Amino acid sequence: MNEPSTGPLAWVNGSDAPEKSEINLGFMALSDCASVVVAATQGFAQPYGLTLNLKRQSSWANLRDKLVSGELDAAHSLYGLIYAVHLGIGGVAPTDMAVLMGLNQNGQSINLSHGLQAAGVTSPEALDRHVHQSRPKLTFAQTFPTGTHAMWLYYWLASQGIHPLHDVDSVVVPPPQMVAHLQAGRIDGFCVGEPWADSAVKQDLGFTLATSQAIWPDHPEKVLGCTRAFVEQYPNTARALVMAILEASRFIDDSSENRRSTAQLLSAPQYLDAPLSCIEPRLLGDYADGLGNQWQDPHALRFHGQGAVNLPYLSDGMWFMTQFRRWGLLRDDPDYLAVARQVQQLGLYREAASAVGVAAPGNEMRSSQLIDGKVWDGSDPAGYARSFKLNALSDSSPLLASR
């Protein structure tokens, strides 16, 4: 891979030196861990006085527990995981958490099984008919109860008139195990990050029915997460870590050649342990859905976007809380904006971005239109959470009951 640019070495001297030079950095075997792996292995951290020890995790629950316990200092993390821990959702004690930066946007997929494909269930309309006619219920897998994949799956199903809590069953499966569960017939479909969706297509185990970027173009996805205690105890370290990963993010997005070398790096056994043929195409935006359709996706997985990907917008964090409320994971409306201000480390991010020459817009909110036509801009989160025809606010939700 190409050599990174040398960062401002002044940051490693004097009062700006990292308080902690060795960082245990967690990640899951997904293509969107790329910037973390590149930062750790391609010389992006050393100029800032850091050594990044990569720690692959077997599940998001394990990653969460090790973040909270301090066994991991920071991690490639699901947006909703960080907020769930902060709010005490999912059987864990509330722990003050922090989002240091966004790691990527887009690039997740909803796949259906070969069995459904053979039955002609190859469109949203056909799935809607099948779901409302078939017994037993179809079973869909996602990767973590409050994670991005659960929220994309629920949002997409609801946009097609399918209630994700009543009309189908939902189970949790760690990302690298999705393909095996599909092959064994334990699930009828899944929502997961790459390379596992493309791997299922390549193995003729099903097809991609929808991408997450079709649900929300340039949606927030993984973040660099840690506890608030880590930021408060090691502020220089946290800032230096963001700087290193920002440089790696910029490097990956700089050229298709850099993306190809990144895909090659990720295929190694200690990272994704997956064939390059399942990683590289969708990392380059080249999609084949398994139904004979091929396209170059204008909103494929991206890591930098001149900094637009990496700014931890308050509205991005707030959106996940609106969906927790919508699906009964929260009993009451939190103070959406106040919680987002606690979690999103905008000040620290802007310092780091400025130091490495990355533009950091002054706005803290952004506006987006999702697949159902609804516009999200963060202005009325409580109203937004209640505005959906399909929700769990008016019934006894199994999600709420299991909290």
Radius of gyration: 20 Å
Structural class computed from helices and strand pairing = alpha/beta
* Termini gap: 46 Å
Amount of helix: 25-40%
Strand content: 15-25%
Instruction: Write down the overall geometry.
Output: globular
Read across the widest sheet, the strand sequence of neighbours is 2-1-3-10-4
Structure, described:
54% of the residues are buried. α1 (34-41) packs across α11 (235-254), α11 (235-254) crosses α12 and α14 crosses α15 (336-343). The protein is α/β, with parallel strands linked by helices. The strands form four sheets. Strands 2-1-3-10-4 form a five-stranded mixed beta sheet, with helices on both faces. A five-stranded mixed beta sheet has the order 7-6-8-5-9, sandwiched between helices. The protein is built from 18 helices and 14 strands. It is 39% helix and 16% strand. The protein has helices at 34-41, 60-69, 79-87, 114-118, 124-133, 148-159, 178-183, 196-202, 212-215, 228-233, 235-254, 256-266, 276-283, 314-326, 336-343, 346-355, 381-386, 398-401, and strands at residues 22-27, 51-56, 74-78, 97-102, 108-113, 139-142, 169-172, 189-193, 206-211, 222-227, 286-288, 294-296, 368-369, 375-376. The radius of gyration is 20 Å and the shape is globular.
SSE blueprint:
Layout: E1 22-27, H1 34-41, E2 51-56, H2 60-69, E3 74-78, H3 79-87, E4 97-102, E5 108-113, H4 114-118, H5 124-133, E6 139-142, H6 148-159, E7 169-172, H7 178-183, E8 189-193, H8 196-202, E9 206-211, H9 212-215, E10 222-227, H10 228-233, H11 235-254, H12 256-266, H13 276-283, E11 286-288, E12 294-296, H14 314-326, H15 336-343, H16 346-355, E13 368-369, E14 375-376, H17 381-386, H18 398-401
Parallel strand pairs: 1-2, 1-3, 6-7, 6-8
Antiparallel strand pairs: 3-10, 4-10, 5-8, 5-9, 11-12, 13-14
